[in-house]
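Let us work through a complete example step by step.
Step 1: write down the sequence.
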Amino acid sequence: MKGSIRAKGKCPNCGKAFTHLRRVGYICADCKTTPSRFYIDIFWKGDRVRVFCDKTGQPLDTYQRALNLQATIQHEIENFTFDISRYSKAELQKYWASTLLEKFLEAKLKTVAPSYMRHYKKMVSTHKEFFNTTDVREIRKLNIVYYLDHLNEKGYEGKTAKNYMDNLKTFLTWLRTDLEMLSTVPSFPTVEVQPFDWTWLDAEDQIRTLELVDEADKPIIMFLMLHGCRPGEARALKIKHVDIL
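Step 2: predict the structure and record it as tokens.
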């Protein structure tokens, strides 16, 4: 097995080093205390490195957790997929979903209509709550399916659930295209949305309604009528977005 499992620190009572009992763990022979932190000591490409946490940033707080991680590292080395940076907490934090969702929100809020900002922030906050310290490079379709189940459990279904899933897909696409962190975006499950039965005003009702609008507000109302924009979209419109030629 590659690497050695070592105890971090010494006995808090007598200050002596812990004794290693093969496949059992570490213990202080005198005080019978056990360590609360472990690490894997490994030589990799000519350098000595120490692994203190797994890929999620979870510290090695039990001997069994250290054994499991040692087996995982052995498997990765044998299959040429071992990457020491994935076991460094400082490096891992750069790939945490919560860290990158903050950057995503900061970048995207500049393009979001003011009336939609609160909803946009809520969607991103819900993503962060679920994915938290998940490495974005490890997100697969199954994780996304579980997230959809999570949304349904919170009462978000139909069009609302689809909006959340579309926003998450936008985030993963942003990681792939803008930050080049992902080679591909996982496929997403289909969210069923029942078609809404719209009740449209006919032309005569629209004209009568427009007559009741204050003169100062008529230009934007007429713009909405003619172009089919949402109020938030019209309010966010800038001169640079309009080609009057």
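Step 3: interpret the result. The mean pLDDT is 90.
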